[in-house]
Write a structure and sequence with these properties.
This protein has no helices and 12 strands. With 187 residues, it is mainly β. The model has no long low-confidence stretch (mean pLDDT 86).
């Protein structure tokens, strides 16, 4: 294996690029190696910002997460009638207590059970939706705090992308912990 860094010239044209490694091969009509591809696009300074806030940082499964989106131009106006797309991604969360009584971890780990949820990924996309900002550049939406078949609490990452009339897209993000219950009991 190897790695390297490549600097593009200041006047490099925009578009699709591919870096190819072609190694000698003993096979006819086949080569050894690999490639990586990337796009070069013009950077456009954002003209507005998106703030996303949940009504609570932590909820219990079965609750509803109320989310408020606020989008404003840097010059002070609201981003009105803009399209909004949001996604909610779940990742495992383990309550980790550290305090005067010591440290406790509340994960359900079975050392004899082999690799499982403790080491594996048990989340992914749990919700998505669309909307349109109002005259104040705001949108509210609800996300069900549904853990489905998860055997542990989850951290929901809620991300919303606002696209204004000039087709510029800007994202905002917030996180909410969805607990399995009101208490964590350690034995």
């Amino acid at each position: 294996t190897f790695s390297d860094t490549f600097m593009l010239a200041e006047d490099a044209p925009l578009g699709f690029y591919r870096i190819v490694v072609d190694l000698p091969s003993s096979r006819d009509f086949q080569s050894e190696g690999g490639s990586v591809a990337f796009n070069v696009a013009e950077y456009r300074l954002p003209e507005f910002q998106v703030e996303l806030a949940a009504a609570s940082d932590e909820v219990v499964q079965g609750d509803t997460i109320a989310v408020a989106l606020d989008s404003t131009y840097f010059f002070g106006g609201a981003v009105q009638n803009a399209d909004v797309e949001y996604n909610v991604i779940a990742n495992p969360f383990t309550f980790d207590y550290r305090g005067p009584a010591g440290s406790y971890q509340f994960s359900d780990f079975d050392a004899d059970g082999g690799p499982g949820e403790f080491y594996g990924f048990n989340g992914g996309l749990v919700a998505s939706g669309t909307g349109v900002t109002d005259d104040a550049g705001q949108l509210t939406f609800d996300v069900p705090a549904d853990l489905q078949d998860a055997t542990q609490s989850m951290r929901f990452t809620i991300e919303a992308v606002v696209t204004d009339e000039s087709d510029q897209a800007v994202a905002g993000r917030t996180e909410v912990v969805v607990h399995q219950g009101n208490l964590y009991i350690g034995a």
